[in-house]
Automatic annotation (TrEMBL):
Protein name: ABC transporter permease
GO biological process per UniProt: glycine betaine transport; transmembrane transport
Gene Ontology cellular component terms for the protein in this record: plasma membrane
Family: Belongs to the binding-protein-dependent transport system permease family.
Residue span(s) of domain ABC transmembrane type-1: 22-201
Stored PROSITE patterns: ABC_TM1
UniProt subcellular location: Cell membrane; Membrane
Stored Pfam families: BPD_transp_1 (PF00528)
Organism of this sequence: Zhenpiania hominis
Amino acid sequence: MEFLKEVAQLYQERSEWFGQLICEHILLSLIAILLAGVIGLLLGILIARCEKAAPPVLGIANVFYTIPSISLLGMLIPFMGIGDKTAVVALTIYGIMPMVRNTYAGIKGVDEEIITAARGMGSTEFQILTRIKLPLALGVIIAGVRNMVVMTISVAAIASFIGAGGLGVAIYRGITVYDTALTFAGSVLIALIALISDLLLGHLEKKLKKRRMN
């Protein structure tokens, strides 16, 4: 209980600082999420249309996904320096994999008979993609978005090790000065942001499923 009181007091005394770190963390994560979302979606659509491109694209994405986050940041520093820009690139690379995989799986999971029927009715490939494939694959794609968002918010904590902002600064500072309350305070806030984001996306996913059933 004494430890939790210390954490609560820390939030109260340094509320402005934590508020600033929260804003930085959300902004950093949001930029990476948007970039990974767009790139991953486009790549997923591309490899679903061109099957030959699927194995190499998914393979490369898998390789980057398996590299430890701190190692990837270290590999990017000689080329991009330190700071937010390098952190955004690293987070984007990590976020692309679940988006590509789920977009590809969702589109390939659409019943071929539905697509054939749409073609028979004179629909163009673009109409089939935007009105049939993507809407039917939306549930799988949203699941990929949830995975990517939570992972990006969590991994963003390590960005402070290369001079980027966010709540990782509180964790890093707490570790360096042996302040467990500060480390815990930063970690809890990151977990809360990730949890709230996942709950909101889960609510959106349920709404989309209800619309499809109606």
